[in-house]
Amino acid sequence: MKRSAASHCAAILLAGGILVSLGGAAVLAQTPTDQPPVAPQVVPTSPAPTVGVAPTAPQFRPTPVPLPVVIEAGSGRLIQLPAPAASVMAADPRIARVQPASPTSLFVMAVAPGRTTIIATADDGSPVAEYDITVRPGRGVLAPQPPPPGPLEQIFGRDRREAEPLRPAAVESAIRRSHRGMAGVRVTTAGPNVLVLNGTVANAADAHRAETIARSFAGDDREVINNLELLSSIQVNVRVRVAEISRDITRGLGFNWQAFGRAGEFVLGLRTGQSAGQVIDAIFRPGLDPSLSVAPSILGLGVTGNRYDINAIIDALAQDRLISILAEPNLTAQSGETASFLAGGEFPVPVSGATSSGAVTVSIEFKQFGVSLAFVPTVLGPDRLNLRIRPEVSELSETGAVNLPLAGGVVRIPGLTVRRAETTVELGSGQSFAIAGLLQRRTAQSDQGIIGLAEIPVLGALFRSDRFQRGETELVIIVTPYLVRPVSDPRQLAAPTDGFRPAVDLDRLLFQRQIARGVAMPPLRGRPDAGFILE
Questions:
Q1: What is the model's pLDDT at position 60?
Q2: Other beta carbons within 10 Å of 533
Q3: Helical pair 204-218 and 168-178, crossing angle rounded to 10 deg
Q4: Per-residue pLDDT averaged across 375-399, rounded?
Q5: Distance from CA of residue 5 to its chain's centroid?
Q6: Which of 126, 321, 430, 515 could be a cystine partner for 61, CB 3.0 to 4.6 Å?
Q7: Using one digit for the tens of pLDDT, what is the confidence trace for 273-296?
Q8: Which of 35-44, 372-381, 437-446: highest mean pLDDT?
């Protein structure tokens, strides 16, 4: 009797596909989904049956219960099968790949975090074993390999298996190693099945990444509570102190002589510090010229005789000027946003232009002056921030002023004296630093006199004018940033006008009071508030 080869067909229905095994080979039929399907990995463990050999009758095998296996990403695991297998399939080879080591053992290689299924079938297509593979990132603790199911378990299955206990230290270590900005994440437990994420992260993407890693450790039957705080929502208050003291000392001493001698028709005149026309005019109009006495520091003396006139103008100037500037602007901004501040004013500057027809037009532009501040804070951590700041102090000055002819007249445009600093620093909340300092001393001395006479020792001082000027400037800019939060109770904030009562006319005129009589000023409550509460 001639025997013919028989084909064997066994089908296993999986989530997302149907596995069909034909003579040791397998084909997967995927159901259509929204994403392109991933072909499962099918590996035969024994060759196909030879033609002419009748297959053995299929043996009864109970449906195996999926056994959980936990593997760390990048590692492998050797699994012992309860019976020889003809083919093995991995549902998602992107998570775990399988390689037969022998008919009764498999080598599973973890590729990426996730969950997949590995199924081993016998030569007749009946299932031998099924494994629920969980791949965890980082150094997770591997679950112990369950023993092979016994005869009763193969028939009735296992009612429940104890879950692996949560290990927050392993979860926290995996989260911190996943990204550089995860150092502020802390993981705790709120019960046997709840993981709690606390701490701070830079943005929402980092918070989602930390929660995803925690859920891969917790599994589907456990809860993850995300209490992470975003650093981008924290506000920064910057206090800038600008302190400047400028002192100018001017000393001047000069002699201006008008000497005229008469000898008949001959007239001899001497005058210093004036032009030739003024000298000639003074010769024919001898005497003290009142037009020279235009300054309060000028003193005129004169002696007049029948044949001579001697007049002296003594210029003695002593001037001291002390200027002190102290500004302390405060400004609050959100992390990553720009904030600016100006306490001063604007002055107009005419700008001429021309139209297409050639007509001249004049427009007005305004230039700012005063104390200004602009900064961009970036919070780096719970107590660390990066600050790009640009403080500036400017004032109107006659130095550098220009006269602009305009509409038949002259417009004088003042100059600006500017002290400006711009820098980027990194520091902690409440720490202060000086970003600019100016210690300047300038000295100027000018001499003016008659050539020859001014160089005479001792007496030469009567024929020259000396002017000495010295200036000293000290400027310091100190910056202190704070991490702040809004105030929920408005009563915690104080204004400078709280409790102020102006004096009535009688108290102000007779007693020079600025506050109403009988009204006491409220006591100070420590450092004045600036619209925020320090952490």
A1: 53
A2: 15
A3: 140
A4: 85
A5: 77
A6: 126
A7: 444 444 445 444 444 444 444 444
A8: 372-381
DSSP annotation of 492 reads: G
Q: Facing residues of 427 across strands? A: 385
- Two structure tokens written together for 280: 């000639």
Q: Return the structure tokens found at 69.
A: 């296996």
Amino acid at 158: R
204 against 479, higher pLDDT: 479
- Distance between CA atoms of residues 288 and 271, nearest Å: 11
Tokens coding 153: 């378990």
Report the mean per-residue pLDDT for the chain: 72
DSSP-based three-state secondary structure for 251: strand
358 or 215: which carries more pLDDT confidence? 215
Classify residue 497 by burial, with Cβ atoms within 10 Å: 0-12, 13-18, 19+.
exposed
3-state secondary structure of 328: coil
What pLDDT score does 438 carry?
A: 73
Dihedrals φ, ψ of 239, to 5°? -110, 120
382 vs 108: CA distance, rounded Å: 43
Q: Which amino acid is at 435?
A: I
Check: CB of residue 130 under 8 Å from CB of residue 65.
yes
Residue found under tokens 């009988």: 518
CA–CA dist 234, 230 (Å, integer): 8
Per-residue HEC secondary structure of 371-401 comes to EEEEEEEEEEECCEEEEEEEEEEEEEEEEEE
Q: Is 203 or 171 the better-scoring residue by pLDDT? A: 171
Most confident of 242-256, 302-316, 413-427: 413-427
Type of residue at 358: G
Two tokens at 212?
């995803």
**Cβ(305)–Cβ(311) under 8 Å?**
no
Beta strand 223-226 with 194-201 is parallel
Give residue-wise pLDDT tens across range 335-354.
888 888 888 889 888 887 88
